[in-house]
Amino acid sequence: MANVLVLGAAGFIGFHLSRYIADEGHQVTLCDNFMRGKQDLDFANLLSAPNVRFVEADLTQLSSFNLFNEHYDEIYLLASVVGVRNAETQPHEVMRINTNITHNTLTWAKDQHHNIGKILYASTSEVYAGGVSLGHVPVPTPEQIPLTIEDIRNPRFSYAISKLWGEACCLHYANAYALKISIVRYHNIYGPRMGFAHVIPELLMRILNGENPLTVYGVDQSRAFCFVSDAVKASIKVMRSGQTNGEIVHIGNDTREILISELLEQLLNIASVRPQLSLNPAPEGSVKRRCPDITKLRQFTGFAPEISLNEGLVKTFEWYSNYFTKELRDRQC
Ligand SMILES: NC(=O)c1ccc[n+]([C@@H]2O[C@H](COP(=O)([O-])OP(=O)(O)OC[C@H]3O[C@@H](n4cnc5c(N)ncnc54)[C@H](O)[C@@H]3O)[C@@H](O)[C@H]2O)c1
Questions:
Q1: Is residue 280 part of a domain?
Q2: Atom 44 (ligand 1): residue with closest C-alpha?
Q3: What's the confidence (pLDDT) of residue 331?
Q4: pLDDT value at position 274?
Q5: Could you give the CA distance from residue 121 to residue 239 in angstroms, rounded to a whole number?
């Protein structure tokens, strides 16, 4: 049985990852400050498991790490401010919070060296998106491409810059202090309990609210979506593979890259509705294409995505549909 620490455990990926590892029977310590993560029934159920412990703490404070005083075989560093809206409205906070969390984790890890097994750092495809927009990198995109920030002054890119900095910080601390670290770049992970600030839940919300005409942005953009259970399994495989130490690994689903117009069509079919459409351009700075090359992930871990897009969208639709029905019921009470 391993002792596992999940930082950012009340968030989208953190919750599903923690649930999976707890169900495997490992001892799991969860940490979050609920900046975005939710204290909902799902999270309460997870906390009720006998092998799960929860620590509420702000990881931008180095002193918070004094609360983690055990040996940890696996540390998943997922805590971060994410989302375009946060980057656009508070880029300075995105920089402060994301860099402080990463630096504090690494400072604590180097000081606690004998108590640390391995760290997995969650980065993002956004670190190379500028290269795609400028036509410098191929799509599907492998790991070993130059990372490009199109405009350092544009608040939107503060998130990518904080993650790019985080990757470099992890690599240099790993070398300097002999820490075992892997970096994963997630690519469009989706599924139940992912909040509302991403294309799939935004569309679902509008569809479930009966919006007509239905507002849609960037139908000419394409993405390769990866269901969260696949992302969780891939993350655990990267963590547990000796070959991935010191490596950057793309996590996503390369089996199907689709246009947002096709995604919309599929969601409308699942919901069995046919509203009029109000088509709008994609938000400025949003990359036109995104699809990971996951050859490295396959080679190092043997991972293969299991959930088809349709299967994942049905599961996600059902979760959001139940969520809204309950919300409506609660409002009427
Ligand atoms: N979901 C995706 O498709 C995707 C894509 C690329 C990268 N990522 C990365 O994966 C990680 C997880 O993403 P997610 O979608 O689950 O995000 P999320 O926002 O749902 O989860 C992040 C969690 O970190 C917590 N957090 C923020 N600041 C904190 C602090 N100071 N102290 C303690 N906890 C704090 C939040 O409350 C939240 O629960 C993030 O690092 C994100 O950058 C995700």
A1: no
A2: 186
A3: 64
A4: 96
A5: 10
